[in-house]
């Protein structure tokens, strides 16, 4: 089965929930439903394979919890179709928790 | 050495304290006298100035030499009114630069008092202000007055809330969000949308910062990006997580820059951006293209449901400050006061003292004999905890210790109890020489 590799980064404190600030993730090009793999599949993969603890601090249902912004190649994921964005090889996906300190 | 056991000793101590209070009062009134008293009424808009005076031309010459600013730009700054909510790590440099650059009218909103732990990053305040217990708003206004006497600066020594925010913020053209908690951020955002004011918002924590201009030129508001507040457990503040002093300094300085760009209408077609700053990672700066205004937004969308300010502490599940919350998870018989633990320790009653703070905090200070297993690591290291009787669990404020006791009891450690109020309470009630951080 064909695979695709993307880089994933965490910031704003989310890095403490994962093994490091950056990792490469290899997913099948098509998901279990036979459709092209999306950010939704990536979030699920991260929850099941990379998250060390406290899933409620990363996910809520099948998306990220409130207060997390997802960036795809330095663009707000809302402009790219959010959960339905189809991953491309070498994409850079950043999960960033909004900060409140000042 | 004063002998507190004799009337003579007490009388001498009393004389000394009376003298000290009088001296401090004199210093406080001297400090207040330095600040212009006429600035209180500056919230009423004066007639716009159309010409710069000679002293202004001399003072702002380096601005006037640039065609991007020029006399027109300087007059825009001179006639502008900007309010900074929060005179902390972000507000400090932001206020100093706005005053230095010649913004005509400033407001500072903060009801906290200057504390010594602020001074590593809140560069507008002084050791003296901390000793005197001056409010941050007052201290910031004093600093602005020393820097630029022509700047009319109002100190709003109040807690911004749903009852006062609209009236207070409406007296200004641009609002700077330099606050330190989620509840106030939602409050300030909603108020800016309802008042139709641009909001220059930044935040900083540990080694990172974020900055965006919201509700400006048809762009998104904070709720367009974050419709729902994060769960309280996901929010870390500076007093828990720490912050490198210069990080809010960088972000607050950038906020002053964004205020200038808003006032001078620089790059009106630029798309909305989230600026990310990372002190120790590469790249240091990163600009993220943001979504536009969201049609479904509850406050700025066409079908907005939020038409007045809400109860923000309830909405966010969190108080409007960045101090520690006080949990009460355990029944009274699973908790002990610091003084009763101190008595047991002095009497050498055998026990285990488990400190569940992170190792970096344990290294700052700890009680004699304590073993350190952080609460975040406890589930994975439970085998290292001996089944002692009794087990006392301590942390910084007495919140994590309660969660750890619940966990330990479920794991069969039926004698675990926590120290009420943690090491802060230990310092306050048992040992004043124990450090507080």
How would you summarize the topology of this molecule?
The complex is a heterodimer of chains A (102) and B (437).
Chain A: E1 3-11, E2 22-28, H1 39-49, E3 59-60, E4 63-64, E5 68-72, E6 75-76, E7 92-97
Parallel strand pairs in A: 1-7
Antiparallel strand pairs in A: 1-2, 3-4, 5-6, 5-7
Chain B: H1 7-34, H2 54-59, H3 61-64, H4 70-78, E1 81-85, H5 91-101, E2 105-109, H6 127-132, H7 136-147, E3 152-156, H8 165-169, E4 174-177, H9 182-195, E5 199-205, E6 208-214, H10 222-225, H11 238-241, H12 246-263, E7 273-278, E8 285-289, H13 312-316, E9 335-336, H14 338-346, E10 352-355, H15 359-362, E11 371-372, H16 378-381, E12 391-394, H17 400-410, E13 416-419, H18 422-429
Parallel strand pairs in B: 1-2, 1-4, 2-3, 4-5, 9-13, 10-11, 10-12, 12-13
Antiparallel strand pairs in B: 5-6, 6-7, 7-8
Helix pairs in contact in B: 5-7, 5-12
What would you note in describing this structure?
Chain B: Zn(2+) binds at residues 221, 224, 297, 300. Chain B: It comes from Tieghemiomyces parasiticus. Chain B: Keywords: ATP-binding, Cytoplasm, Metal-binding, Multifunctional enzyme, Nucleotide-binding, Transferase, tRNA processing, Ubl conjugation pathway, Zinc. Chain B: This is Needs CLA4 to survive protein 3. The complex is a heterodimer of chains A (102) and B (437). Chain A has one domain (3-97): Ubiquitin-like (UB roll). Chain A is 11% helix and 32% strand. Chain A contains 1 helix and 7 strands. Chain A has a 5-stranded mixed β-sheet, with no helix packed on it. Chain A has a two-stranded antiparallel sheet with strand order 3-4. The N and C termini of chain A lie far apart (48 Å). In chain B, α5 packs parallel to α7 (136-147) and α5 (91-101) crosses α12 (246-263). Helices cover 37% and strands 14% of the residues of chain B. Chain B is globular, with a radius of gyration of 26 Å. The interface between A and B is large, with 26 and 48 residues.
> Which strand order does the major sheet of chain B show?
3-2-1-4-5-6-7-8
- Whole-number count of domains of chain A: 1
Number of domains of chain B: 3
Q: How many β-strands of chain A, per DSSP?
A: 7
User: SS-based structural class of chain B?
Assistant: alpha/beta
CATH topology of chain A: Ubiquitin-like (UB roll)
Strand percent estimate of chain A: 25-35%
Integer average pLDDT of chain B: 92
CATH architecture of the largest domain in chain B: 3-Layer(aba) Sandwich
Order of helices and strands of chain A: EEHEEEEE
Query: What's the architecture of chain A, going by CATH?
Result: Roll
Q: Largest sheet of chain A at a glance?
A: 5 strands, mixed
Superfamily at the CATH H level of chain A? Beta-grasp domain
Assign the CATH class of the largest domain in chain B.
Alpha Beta
How many strands, what sense, and barrel or not for the largest sheet of chain B? 8 strands, mixed
Radius of gyration of chain A: 13 Å
Number of helices of chain B: 18
At the fourth level of CATH, the homologous superfamily of the largest domain in chain B is NAD(P)-binding Rossmann-like Domain
Q: What's the number of helices of chain A?
A: 1
Active site (chain B): 238 (glycyl thioester intermediate), 395 (cysteine persulfide intermediate)
Subcellular location (chain B): Cytoplasm, Cytosol
Pathway (chain B): tRNA modification; 5-methoxycarbonylmethyl-2-thiouridine-tRNA biosynthesis
Main location (chain B): cytoplasm
């Amino acid at each position: 089965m064909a695979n695709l590799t993307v880089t994933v980064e965490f910031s704003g404190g989310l890095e403490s929930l994962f093994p490091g600030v950056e990792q490469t993730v290899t997913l099948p090009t098509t998901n279990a439903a036979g459709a092209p793999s999306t950010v939704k599949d990536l979030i699920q993969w991260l929850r099941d394979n990379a998250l060390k603890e406290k899933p409620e601090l990363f996910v809520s249902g099948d998306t990220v919890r409130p207060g997390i912004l997802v960036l795809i190649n330095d663009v707000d994921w809302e402009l790219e179709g959010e959960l339905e964005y189809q991953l491309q090889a070498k994409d850079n996906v950043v999960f960033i928790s909004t900060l409140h300190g000042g | 050495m004063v002998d507190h056991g004799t009337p003579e000793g007490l009388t001498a101590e009393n004389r000394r304290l009376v003298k000290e209070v009088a001296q401090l009062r004199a210093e406080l009134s001297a400090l207040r006298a330095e600040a212009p008293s006429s600035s209180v009424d500056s919230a009423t808009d004066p007639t716009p100035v159309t010409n710069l005076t000679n002293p202004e031309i001399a003072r702002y010459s380096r601005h006037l030499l640039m065609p991007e600013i020029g006399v027109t730009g300087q007059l825009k700054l001179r006639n502008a009114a900007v309010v900074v909510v929060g005179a902390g790590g972000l507000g400090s440099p932001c206020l100093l630069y706005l005053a230095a650059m010649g913004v005509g009218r400033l407001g500072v909103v903060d009801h906290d008092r200057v504390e010594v732990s602020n001074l590593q990053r809140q560069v507008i305040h002084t050791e003296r202000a901390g000793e005197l217990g001056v409010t941050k708003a007052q201290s910031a206004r004093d600093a602005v007055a020393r820097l630029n006497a022509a700047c009319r600066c109002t100190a709003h020594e109040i807690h911004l809330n749903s009852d006062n925010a609209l009236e207070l913020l409406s007296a200004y053209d641009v609002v700077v969000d330099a606050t330190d908690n989620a509840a106030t951020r939602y409050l300030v955002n909603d108020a800016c949308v309802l008042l139709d004011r641009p909001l220059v918002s930044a935040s900083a924590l540990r080694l990172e910062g974020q900055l965006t201009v919201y509700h400006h030129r048809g762009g998104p508001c904070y709720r367009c990006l974050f419709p729902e507040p994060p769960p309280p457990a996901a929010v870390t503040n500076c007093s828990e997580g720490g912050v490198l002093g210069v990080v809010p300094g960088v972000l607050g300085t950038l906020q002053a820059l964004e205020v200038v760009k808003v006032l001078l209408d620089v790059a009106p077609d630029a798309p909305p951006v989230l600026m990310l700053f990372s002190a120790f990672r590469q790249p240091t700066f990163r600009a993220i293209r943001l979504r536009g205004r969201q049609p479904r937004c509850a406050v700025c969308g066409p079908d907005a449901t939020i038409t007045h300010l809400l109860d923000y502490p309830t909405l966010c599940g969190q108080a409007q400050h960045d101090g520690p919350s006080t949990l009460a998870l355990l029944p009274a018989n699973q908790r002990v006061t610091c003084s009763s633990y101190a008595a047991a320790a002095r009497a050498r009653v055998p026990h285990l003292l488990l400190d569940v703070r992170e190792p970096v905090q344990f290294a700052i200070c700890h009680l004699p004999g304590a073993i350190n297993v952080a609460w975040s690591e406890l589930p994975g290291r439970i085998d290292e905890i001996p089944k002692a009787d009794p087990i006392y669990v301590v942390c910084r404020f007495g919140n994590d210790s309660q969660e750890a006791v619940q966990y330990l009891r479920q794991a069969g450690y039926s004698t675990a109890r926590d120290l009420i109020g943690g090491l802060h309470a230990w310092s306050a009630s048992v040992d004043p020489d124990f450090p507080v951080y």
